[in-house]
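pipeline/complex-builder :: batch 7 item 3
reading input block
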Amino acid sequence: MFTLYSMQRSGNSYKVRLALARLRIPYSLVEVDILQGESRTPEFLARNPNGQIPLLEVEPGRYLAESNAILWYLAGGTPLAPDDRVDRAEALQWMFFEQHSLEPNIGAAFFWLALIKGGRDLQRHSLEDWTEEGERALAVMEKHLTGRRFFVAERYTVADIALYAYTHLAHEADFDLKTFPAIRAWLARVAAEPGHVAMDETAPLLAAAQ
Amino acid sequence: MFTLYSMQRSGNSYKVRLALARLRIPYSLVEVDILQGESRTPEFLARNPNGQIPLLEVEPGRYLAESNAILWYLAGGTPLAPDDRVDRAEALQWMFFEQHSLEPNIGAAFFWLALIKGGRDLQRHSLEDWTEEGERALAVMEKHLTGRRFFVAERYTVADIALYAYTHLAHEADFDLKTFPAIRAWLARVAAEPGHVAMDETAPLLAAAQ
């Protein structure tokens, strides 16, 4: 059985919990509080030298890091992965976009505004950059979603899961989605998917069944 | 035939040119000078709303963005992609690491120090952060490469191509690789691969054959 190292309020961790819930894959959950340095202990660094969560133990003693690589691994051979070769590459394109253009801005702003007391004052200068770059990323997403139901292949895939995590937290990071109607409609569409779980309610399937 | 929109001195573009050369795939090359705003024209934005290179036209009128998604697409079914499912996920893990921890730091420093006149003064404050975070990323790579020949599956894959691009430019971005012997040995190993081309000598196969 998989063991997932995750933090409940981490968007990157939520992606993996959402995919596991959707695919009805049982797993063990280890809560890692990165705010208390628990991802930088010698024990954790032995599992992931990059000191980050989420981290999935895919085989005994073999660990997979990077939320979107974990998503790709879990989605393989399931309806969450597109069938067509170009569609699969497009899903990865949006997942790289997410890690390069969305998460470093909206995710960083969420971290400092929602999780760190006094974060707004500590990061006043960076917040301006994150807001500007985050708005630019949202505009790219809005343009793509206009006239589309999902990001790739007109159905719900791992690309949507990857992008949903921090986009649905944007309002907690001071982003206003009022001017992004296509994004708001897509967020509602993802949340209405069968098997969807909210960030705060995700729990391992096995624990829920006990 | 593929058309690649690329800039000669872009590390992200180089990745794709290196993979195409290695796979002996012919393509047309369109040079896009991002320093002259050529990736932000209405014509280019119609192809890639995110306004970035590299961009690969994979089918007439269908464009794939994000260097590592393009690499993954090109590598599919070739020796550049690992065979095993977990190995493939590990390759993607390192490619997401590259775009999240390496490129935003070493790539950004390279851009402002090597491509922009006066960039050092313009980005003095950011350069401190990029140096610190870039060193941290290099340390993670050094640890992984110690005792390994390549990043994944003990052979040359797209993960190596993705990581090579900016790591081999690190010295132009003020990084000193003296304390990273495993990385230096790996750089030499990649450069010695059959079919390897340097950043400045990559040219489309067809043009070279003409």
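note: DSSP finds nine helices and four strands in chain A.
queue -> next item
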